[in-house]
Amino acid sequence: MKAMLLAAGLGTRLAPFTHHHPKALAQVQGRSLLEWNVRYLQQFGIREVVVNVHHFADQIEEAVCAGKGWGSKVLISDERSAVLETGGGLKHATHFFETETAFLVMNVDVLTNLDISALQAAHAAGKAQATLAVMQRPSSRYLLFDEKLWLCGWRNTKTGELRGLPGTDFAFSGIQIISGDLLRGIHRDGKFSLIDVYLDALAAGGKIQGFDHSNDLFLDAGKPETLAQAQSFPAPAGKA
What we know:
This protein is α/β, with parallel strands linked by helices. The protein is built from 7 helices and 14 strands. α3 crosses α6. The mean pLDDT is 96.
């Protein structure tokens, strides 16, 4: 299976570091977030990784070159001309996944011990268009699921906005397996989020399932305070 690490964002939450560097190169225990997650994916046999770049793109390319992909084949999806968000960035990288029946997409600033093999098995068993890693934890925005963990809606607790139908609240972990058919069927253009893609699929009668990994370790390392916490996070056992 191939993977995509979403690394093109401006990383405003991680300022002032991101005034001069991309968030993907923030350091955790002597490794960048990018290297950390390349090595994390290696544990599950994923050694071909696409990384999208925009903010300080040259620095990411230089780091990949200097590290020789850290033992993986790391390919660059160039978004220098515009910030496309998660959904637009994935659509821009469609050509990397043309022959894939399914592939993994992950935010570069997420740290977890989620078993990707279990996520893959759930995706295969559920025959879903996408399988989203979710947790029961506090958040301002929730994905809503029915009793069988099929997506039924989305809710913003700050604004009260509800899209779709009510259901049980789960926070999205920024990790998902997406079918090639869903990717090739995206009709939006420009800048949009993957949440938009999932809610579009839901409205069209599609099947998006959740994968509850609430018992796993998880850290959104995209803020100074959580990046500091990451210094004691268990390191991945990828290729040395």
